[in-house]
Each structure stands twice: as C-alpha cells, then as structure tokens.
Amino acid sequence: MRQQKYATNIRMDYVLDKKSCSMTSDKKRKSRELYEQYADGASEADVKKIASKLDSMKKGPIAEIWDSVTALWKMIKDPHAAWGAKALAIGALLYLVSPVDAIPDIIPVVGLTDDVGVIVAAVAALADSLNKYKGIDK
C-alpha cells in the first residue's frame, strides 16, 4: 500500500499542477492532504456516504469524467478488488462528494476543479486496475 500511495502522491502533485492551474499552491496542498486523510480512513460507512451522494455529483466538469467516476465506484463495490486500491478509490470519491474541500463546490466555474484533479490522480494511480471496470480488455 505504501508504494502505491507514494505513486499516487506523485501523480496527484503532477495532475494538480497541470490540470488545476487556477488553484493556488495552498489549495493544491489542502486537496492532497484531504484526499490522503479520506483514503487512510476509508471505511464501510464511507461507502454508504458515497452511495447516497454520488449521483448528484454528475454536473459541470465532473460530468466530463463520469466514466472514471463510475469505474472507481465499480471497483469499490467489487468484493475481489484489493483493499489498497479500494481505499484510494474511496478517498477520491469521498473527496468528490464532500462539500468541504480545497475549493468549495458551490463556487461557480472553479468549485469542482479540485475534485476533478483528485479523481484524475486516483485514476492515474489505479489505471491498470481500473481497465476492467471501464470495460477495457488488456
């Protein structure tokens, strides 16, 4: 898990630098810290929270990456998926459904940019594992 988490942190830093240009370095740091907190504390209660709120998040820039969001959700629900991978997916989707993050979701235009960065970073870290949930055969 530690090696995968380290890789995720590197990718997350890269994604937040490249994809979320409107975010200050403080906002990028806060995004990474919240995501790590969510992933480290992932639980069954978190899965229920995600289930209750996920559909309402298909809007704005999140709608453009919805296939990635649903692939992360399918991984979480798969009883055969590795727990470490599930924890990363849970962390990313918790970040998405949480109203408390680096850039509050209610801010027009930019409110979901940090959420997109976190989802893209998680997808990059889990790319090979997510292929089967996206319907991509290797």
Mean pLDDT: 79
Question: Helix-strand pattern, N to C?
Answer: HHHHHHHH
> Could you estimate the helical fraction of the residues in percent?
over 70%
Rg, alpha carbons: 14 Å
Strand proportion, as a percent range, falls in under 5%
**Assembly status:** single chain
> What is the 3D shape?
globular
Structural class: mainly alpha
Poorly predicted runs are: 1-8
**Count of runs of 4 or more consecutive helical residues:** 8
Question: Helix and strand layout, with pairings?
Answer:
Blueprint: H1 2-19, H2 25-40, H3 44-53, H4 60-64, H5 66-77, H6 83-97, H7 113-125, H8 127-134
Helix pairs in contact: 1-7, 2-6, 3-6, 5-6, 5-8, 6-7
Describe the structure.
- With 138 residues, this protein is mainly alpha-helical.
- It is 70% helix and 0% strand.
- The chain starts with a helix and ends with a helix.
- It has helices at residues 2-19, 25-40, 44-53, 60-64, 66-77, 83-97, 113-125, 127-134.
- The protein is globular, with a radius of gyration of 14 Å.
- The protein is built from 8 helices and no strands.
